[in-house]
Amino acid sequence: MEKLWIFIILSTALLKGADTLRSKKSVITSLRAKWPHTSFIAETSEFIAQEGDVLFWRYLDAIAEKINVDEWSTYSDAKQHDLAIRLAAGLLEEPRVNLLKFSLSLRAHSPAVQLFQEVTT
């Protein structure tokens, strides 16, 4: 009986350790595109447009109120990224903000933004 308990305890510990090792894996992605870098604000706008028209227009209002167009081009990519997320965070729930961050890291909306830019030129 004692050996059975030892077996159960060791099995549980091994399974728990295997789960811990499995959960520490990370994902690395890479995207190479033939088009130039697209704006984080434009990509965030595309993400929010999928959430709904009302949120999209609220996001554009927030951009108009809080971003100085003359200074925008002087911001680093990191600052533009953070600002785009900060403005969106005021409109989206936390799980959606996390999804937005993931979407921006994958540049998931970059093709749509580039398509719209090419259509307008």
From TrEMBL:
Stated name of the protein: Thioredoxin_12 domain-containing protein
- The signal peptide annotation in the UniProt record is 1-20
Q: InterPro entries under this entry?
A: UDP-g_GGtrans, UGGT_TRXL_1
Recorded GO molecular functions are: UDP-glucose:glycoprotein glucosyltransferase activity; unfolded protein binding
One GO cellular component, as annotated:
endoplasmic reticulum
The residues covered by the UGGT thioredoxin-like domain are 38-119
Q: Which UniProt keyword terms apply here? A: Signal
Coiled-coil stretches = none
Q: PANTHER family from the xrefs?
A: UDP-GLUCOSE GLYCOPROTEIN:GLUCOSYLTRANSFERASE, UDP-GLUCOSE:GLYCOPROTEIN GLUCOSYLTRANSFERASE
Q: Name one GO biological process term.
A: protein N-linked glycosylation via asparagine
